[in-house]
Amino acid sequence: MVLLIQYTLIFSAVLILVALGGMFSERSGIINLGLEGIMVFGAMAGAMVMVLLPSDASRFTIIVLTLLASAVAGMLSSLLIAVACINFKADQTLIGTALNMLATASATVIIKGFNTARSGGTDFSAKLDYVRGHNAFMFNIGSLQLSWFIVVAAVLLIIAIVFFYKTKLALRIRACGEHPQAADSVGINVYAMRYIGVLMSGFLGGLGGIIYIAAANSTWHFDYGVAGAGFLALAVMIFGQWKPERIAWSAVLFALFRSLSNVYMGIGFLHALPISGTVYNMFPYIVSLIVLAFTSQNSRAPKAEGIPYDKGAR
What residues form the membrane-spanning segments (predicted)? Predict the structure, then answer.
């Protein structure tokens, strides 16, 4: 049960950050289906920093530089979506899908090239496992072994809630996702607000990527990306009705089912059931389909999401 709580908390941290990123992008009017790809770019950048840092680097240095690299990589990759969808008014669904495909392929090539350039040195995956194995990101509360990334996610969630409900900038972003023409008529720069929304999604998505591979995933394989965590975060965002506090509770629910695939062997009655481990791996995605099937009719997405802004239209 302790392991179930630990895994639920860390998967919740991933889903909360990435879903919040999707929320800010869609609240500005841009559908970001590229969250999976942004996570991969963020994970790759953060992991490379972990590998390149000296073995005697302090825990604080490792955490800060890793998070910073992941956030910057996430924002840079999200710029591809922003430029294509805002400036060139490209189809947002296609651009997000293209970014997901680009991310995994690019990361695989870059990491292989990285290992080749470091031939004779420590292999990328081996060094990454070494850093994680030495618990650089962990701390204990009683019998629970938790990650500092959970604390980071909790702090960012609080900041997101305050920002979303209490700041003028968030109100302007939300206005651009509901009625951009009306927002423009009162002097709000719709293009700038949408850029901010997409960049925020890149920032949070990149952080979610490094948390996934550094704390939530036991192995590092770019061939498999981040195992659909970005798409699961989209389901969390929709179920959470594009509101940060509801996204948080939704993330915990989905994370609970995602965690079962990691710990069911240690839970007596679950292990005794004649159910394959593959089925437990499928649980979060099955649950997301069921939940969305029953709740999608009552969903209220931002009215202008997915619609390129035309300044001349009224």
Answer: 6-24, 31-54, 60-86, 93-114, 146-165, 195-215, 221-240, 247-267, 273-294
Tokens (6 digits) for 167: 């700041």
CA 188 to chain centre: 28
The per-residue b/e assignment along 7-41, b for 16 or more CB within 10 angstroms, e otherwise, is: bbbbbbbbbbbbbbbbbbbbbbbbbbbbbbbbbbb
CA distance 95 to 82: 10
Is 30 in a helix, a strand, or coil? coil
Report the half-sphere exposure of 45 (CA within 13 A, side-chain side): 28
Q: How far apart are CA 209 and CA 237, in angstroms?
A: 16
Which domains does the chain possess? 2-298 (1.10.3470)
Average pLDDT over residues 252-263: 85
Rounded CA gap, 124 and 45, in Å? 12
pTM of the predicted model over 0.85:
yes
pLDDT tens digits along 54-76: 878 888 898 899 999 999 999 99
Q: What are the φ and ψ backbone dihedral angles of 30, each rounded to 5 degrees?
A: -110, 120
CB 265 within 8 A of CB 275: no
Token pair of 236, please?
């969390």
Mean pLDDT of the chain: 88
Residue type present at position 171: L
Residue of 104, 103, 109 lying closest to 80 (CA atoms): 103
* 70 residue type, one letter: S
